[in-house]
Amino acid sequence: MSRICGIVAEYNPFHNGHKHHIAAARQVSDADHIIAVMSGNFVQRGEPAIVDKFTRTRMALLGGADLVLELPVGFATASAEGFASAAVYILGKTGLVTDLCFGAETHDLQSLQAITHILVDEPDDFKTTLRAGLAQGDSFPKARAGAVKQILPHGADIISRPNNILAIEYLKALAKFGFNITPHPVPRKGANHHDGGLDGQFASATALRREILAGNLEDLISFLPASSLDLLRGQPFNQIDNFSTIFHYNYNVKGSTLEKAAENHYPISQVVAAAKTKNITHTALKRKALSIVLDLATLLSKPQYIRILGFRRDKAHLIGQLEKTAGLPVITNLKNAPKDLRGLGLDKEIEATRLYWLALKPQNIHGKSELSAPMIII
């Protein structure tokens, strides 16, 4: 039986660190194939992806992935828990994935699993300390780290790091769904998740997006695979402030943290900055603003389908295997998708893509429909 390793990613954009991660995932899991579940046109930090999902799918396939599946927009823009849970659910429901590799600031799987048990079991000491931290105005991540420290002293540092947070959420999801999938943390190479510097061959996606939006794409040749750099050339780049008019048009959430800021500030980045408080993270506020843009008030509890964004031609047999083993409907073409799925997330995906292009390049809106977009095959 083939070993197939799953990866959860945004590839925003696909850089050298991602290429390293795929190669490391193959090695540590002894995988024959790599299946990536990737966010679509909007990402977990509450922003549009810098380039569209089909461009990023092509980057991923050229960078080493064999098959790319889509994480639906409602889950791609959720909290770390919702994001990780949905992605693991899709991988598990393929019926093919035997291993899961995820980036982390630590390779200490035992400690990650110990923290996972604390968060799942919620012992009394944990709950008491968590409530106390929240009561004194700490953000949820800070209060949770303090509560973990009460039981596992070195755990507070581990759970305070962004990739470790997602790693723990992946482990929680594996436990919740009971999938027979072996987890493997892969330590990050080079820059940390939010590092702003450019040094060596590895830089954070945050730093790369900053340079791209500043018009410095050609300065990034050392940090991006040549295929990614080629695909970025000539592309329009999206960012959250492009959606400011849509946000203010849709805004009607009385009593929320964003209310007063939305009345007095424009664009979205200024609204979020003005609404920032001690106990709400900047990213959580951006996700809230994006949910207003995309009208994501009502979400399903779990993904209802598996959508293929692209695959490598020499790995086309994976599609046939997937259609036999999947525990969810498999979609290769939205035009031919079962009508009952339209109300279970597909309509929202179609609308989100329309808004992505409307905010980025209104004149091209009619040429960027989900219904006419083919899978990427290389």
What does this structure look like?
Helix 4 (80-93) packs across helix 9 (162-177), helix 5 (109-121) packs across helix 9 and helix 14 (268-275) packs across helix 15 (282-294). With 378 residues, the protein is of the alpha/beta class. 44% of the residues are buried. Helices cover 46% and strands 12% of the residues. The strands form two sheets. Strands 1, 2, 5, 6, 7, 8, 9 and 10 form an eight-stranded mixed sheet that branches. The model has no long low-confidence stretch (mean pLDDT 92). It has 17 helices and ten strands. A hairpin with a 3-residue loop joins strand 3 (42-43) and strand 4 (47-48). The protein has helices spanning 16-29, 53-62, 73-76, 80-93, 109-121, 124-135, 140-151, 155-159, 162-177, 205-213, 226-232, 244-250, 259-264, 268-275, 282-294, 317-325, 346-360; strands spanning 4-9, 33-39, 42-43, 47-48, 67-71, 99-104, 182-187, 306-311, 330-331, 376-377.
Short description:
The chain is of the alpha/beta class.
Number of strands: 10
Calculate the mean pLDDT score and round it: 92
What is the H/E string? EHEEEHEHHEHHHHHEHHHHHHEHEHE
Distance between the termini: 25 Å
- Helical content, roughly? 40-55%
Which word captures the global form?
globular
The largest sheet, given as strand count, sense and whether it forms a barrel, is: 8 strands, mixed
- Content-based structural category: alpha/beta
Strand content: 5-15%
Q: Which runs of at least 5 residues are low in confidence (pLDDT < 50)?
A: none
Total helical elements: 17
- Rg (CA only): 20 Å
